Amino acid sequence: RRRVNRPRMRILVTGGAGFIGSHIADAYIAAGHDVTILDDLSSGRRANIPPQATFVEADITSPRLVELVDWPSFDVVNHHAAQASVRASLERPDEDARINVYGTTNVLTCAAHAKVKRVIFASTAGALYGETELRPTPETAPCWPESPYGVSKWACEKYLLWANKAGAIKTVVLRYANVYGPRQGVDGEAGVVAIFTRALLRGEVARIFGDGEQTRDFVHVRDVVRANVAALSAGDGVIYNVGTGIETSVNALYAKVAA
Q1: Cα separation of 175 and 136, whole Å?
Q2: Which of 190, 178, 182, 183 has the alpha carbon at shortest distance from 85?
Q3: Of 186, 213, 210, the residue nearest 197 (C-alpha)
Q4: pLDDT tens digit string along 25-79?
Q5: Which element (helix H / strand E) includes 242?
Q6: pLDDT tens digit string along 98-129?
Q7: Would strands 118-124 and 170-176 be described as parallel, antiparallel, or unpaired?
Q8: By the 8 A CB rule, do 16 and 35 touch?
Q9: d(Cα 56, Cα 223) in Å, to the nearest integer?
Q10: C-alpha to C-alpha distance for 156 and 86, rounded to whole angstroms
């Protein structure tokens, strides 16, 4: 197979010490790109940061963000830093909006003013579409967020798409299904694969809420990484679902993990 030489990029990954962001940083480095990680370590882990990456410990909501990062040096910003808990958003919708909406517009403004070429934004599928009967759910389906977290992510998408349409910067939106894989924590409500795995390895009883027949689209983090690599050079102004398109019930998932 003929090797294709791609141009070396300088990429900033916000939230790059987290579960998904750290895998994306690894892939960008493996592809030969220069990576800087911006993370406040509120949920990310220092151990997830690749040794080849430059690390900046900072909060995306900081009014000094424009000074803390050398924005003009980047070709791409991959924005994963966020408040990602639905439960926390229900308890503190103001804090959810501060981190997700203001934090994202802060990053977007810094990037646009510095003439960064592209911003890739990590959004959500499940929290946006609601309990739709159209499955698999296409990107054209109406959005009916059922939590402040879903509302904040939807608002962020609108800012990104507006910036792209206005010609301020090229943007790509990736709506993730239920992502699982190595480095996933067991504290978040979305980490059911990690929760089941830990319980079974410890010989504990795994809890299944409801009848277990509720279905989700479970996608491995490596496939999410592939989407983020592709988004480096394609998808301007477009929203993409990132998932398998396959429904899996919680009961079926448990049976697979137990086996």
Answers
A1: 13
A2: 190
A3: 186
A4: 999 999 999 999 999 999 999 999 999 999 999 999 999 999 999 999 999 999 9
A5: strand 238-242
A6: 999 999 999 999 999 999 999 999 999 989 99
A7: parallel
A8: yes
A9: 27
A10: 16
Q: In Å, how far are 36, 73, 74, 107, 108 from 115, measured between CA atoms? A: 17, 9, 9, 12, 10
> What radius of gyration, in Å, describes the C-alpha atoms of the chain?
18
* Angstrom distance (rounded) from CA 103 to CA 86: 17
pTM given for the model: 0.94
d(CA 26, CA 224): 13
CA 77 to chain centre: 13
Contact yes or no for 249/215 (Cβ under 8 A): yes
pLDDT in tens, 152-204: 999 999 999 999 999 999 999 999 999 999 999 887 666 899 999 999 999 99
Distance CA 170, CA 119 (A): 6
**Beta bridge mates, 238:** 172
Q: Which residues are part of the catalytic machinery?
A: 149
- For residue 136, is the peptide bond before it cis, meaning its omega torsion is within 30 degrees of 0? yes
